[in-house]
What does this fold into?
Amino acid sequence: MNAKTMRCACGIDAHAHVIPENFPAYIGSKLPGDWPSMAPAQACHRNVMISGKVYRTVSDKCWDTGKRLADLPAMGLKLQVVSPMPELLSYWMAPADAQQLLRYLNDQIAGMVAESGGALAGLGAVPLQDMDLAIAELEYVVKVLGFPGVEVGSNINGIAIGDPRLDPFFEACEALGAAVFVHAIRPAGMERLVGPASLQQVIGYPGDVGLAAASCITSNLPVRRPNLRIAFSHGGGTLASLLPRLEQGWDVFPALKDSMAQSPREQAGKLFYDTLVFDTPTLRHLVASFGSTQLLVGTDYPFNFHDRTPVERIEAAGFDEATLAQLTHRNAERFLGLKANP
Amino acid sequence: MNAKTMRCACGIDAHAHVIPENFPAYIGSKLPGDWPSMAPAQACHRNVMISGKVYRTVSDKCWDTGKRLADLPAMGLKLQVVSPMPELLSYWMAPADAQQLLRYLNDQIAGMVAESGGALAGLGAVPLQDMDLAIAELEYVVKVLGFPGVEVGSNINGIAIGDPRLDPFFEACEALGAAVFVHAIRPAGMERLVGPASLQQVIGYPGDVGLAAASCITSNLPVRRPNLRIAFSHGGGTLASLLPRLEQGWDVFPALKDSMAQSPREQAGKLFYDTLVFDTPTLRHLVASFGSTQLLVGTDYPFNFHDRTPVERIEAAGFDEATLAQLTHRNAERFLGLKANP
It folds into this structure.
């Protein structure tokens, strides 16, 4: 398929990433060993260096707004929401160092948004290893930069994102009307992977997102924060496989029933999920599992492992017109708080 | 629904568990701290004690063959394949101690099979922490006890079941024609669970089974051992959610493509999976994902968290007659090697 077969370029991509062309010089007394830097690579590419090694070779579409905007129509997109490459979230750095790097990233994203003529929106990054700094940076990206929300990791140094210790952050997001996009990061289960390093992204990421979403459900986040808008990357990862068993477990185990204020299915139906699953039957299964009101486009653009036909894939899945509009853009508008849903 | 509404009691349950009424006295010089024992509980129940604590309160249906057989017709079952409660697999004990306990369990299962009049079959347990002892016990359960196969954990002390280090065991299973049933055990991702202890079974188990099945695919087990018959518990856990992304990753990452002799989907279509997912849309999605030839009934009987209507659930899913016969019993016959499939 190509752009000609699409009915409209009306899609909103809530899951796309940014890497700046350069990383800032560190300002402080002790350079963190994992402070990122850039090194040359082949034409139109650079190497992201972390801890002295090539973390990833990335294309200039990561920072070149013009090249990015040129790609959007063929993908069926009218708006792309960009967030930092997750490894840059820097939860493992000293808080002040992370805050320094994330402030730079947030300002870089704001610059791209400003030059995009309305075709890009930003999700900021906050140093969640320090609650006060995280809330301060949240206020900066929402109030000063005007972003619709933030990107957070599926876990913060091993603490699942649904852990009640993170509730003050979600309370602040709810109060500010900030959307929260949860992306896989440094996943659990690495010790079970048998094969090349890319399995971290391929297998580890969806597993950690599934555990992250499950942790929000088992800790009643949608009940604790009824006005919070929170979305999960990679179709919610493994959550679709976990949910029926969690629902049945809730019926069977008194301790689980006592600990959850609403059923797992009911709570899952209040979270958002992107459509980045690379498979039409799985996409239909997500709609059946989570509801047609909760899915929104995600692409992982511009990384190699991104979905090049996100809107066409949805258009080809045989949904009715209303569902099609929900999945391509209306749910994203609601998640991002861009405008009131009719 | 009840037994009257079922069309036949033709089902074969490949996933049901046994606990003996008593555990044996330890014979040796140093009693392992986690050697199991039984303690009294309410009527018709006993407490499995491990390391001085109640591991689980279980009903006498775990060991009472008569009570078990009485339950089979209402579940639509003509045959139940019983295997040890996974926590008894004892991979963490000294090999000789585990072998002592597992031999007792295997003989107990053989006794239940013998008194069942053909309504039960057994899957044995082997001490996979020691390859030589494991293969010796495999030969005992197949050649002496006449079992169709064995139950193994999704990981052996943290080593995913697809790890090539375990290949000598699968080579022996292939040579002996022994079916292998992979059950979740001591799962990865425990540090991401937020809620009561039962989440280990509810969320952790399917996650570890998914990683186990993925490890078999990424390590080419169906290619290395083309005649091995291997099945995964809990519908393959999270594998259905992981597989489309693994397929796409195989297309995108050269190192992954180079390491896998056949596509992930092709390999996944050679593994078996039980139907224990408690949800009709998910069951249909498993058939679409793995193929109607690869699913077989699983119940987790007689534990609290078991499927009481496994065959009715399949009958209610709207499959055609051929698929219905495959899922209820024909695939299980093929997996177990009970008779040649017509």
